[in-house]
Design goal:
single chain, mainly alpha, Cytochrome Bc1 Complex, Chain D, domain 2, 62% helix, 0% strand
Length: 111
């Protein structure tokens, strides 16, 4: 009867590793940060407003995102929102980049 316990332990370890990897993957080099800042201000800003206060898409200010986890925001960035004009950015952004954007949006996006 130890087999289910071992499987549970392995699954728990894997899930923990994924969470640690996702939350610790926030450090990008300066060039990547500049590129992503430009992308958010221009591409995301075309729908969410150049100041991210909203437009076709909703606002992306810290006060509007405070109830969302960075991981959830990153998933929306990568997968888009079916039936809404929010396109998926997977293939153009890595998970690390999407999580960096999400974290910055929650804190107040750089200029």
């Amino acid at each position: 009867m130890q087999c289910p316990s071992i499987i549970w332990l392995l699954l728990s370890s894997l899930m923990g590793a994924c969470i640690v990897t996702m939350t610790s993957a926030l450090a990008l080099d300066e060039s990547a940060e500049r590129r992503l800042t430009h992308l958010v201000r221009q591409d995301c800003g075309s729908c969410h407003g150049m100041t991210l206060k909203g437009g076709l898409g909703g606002p992306l200010l810290p006060k509007d995102l405070k109830e969302f986890e960075s991981e959830s925001i990153a998933s929306i960035i990568l997968d888009g929102v079916p039936g809404k004009p929010m396109p998926p950015w997977q293939g153009q952004l890595s998970k690390e980049e999407a999580l960096w954007i999400a974290d910055k949006l929650k804190k107040g996006f750089p200029q």
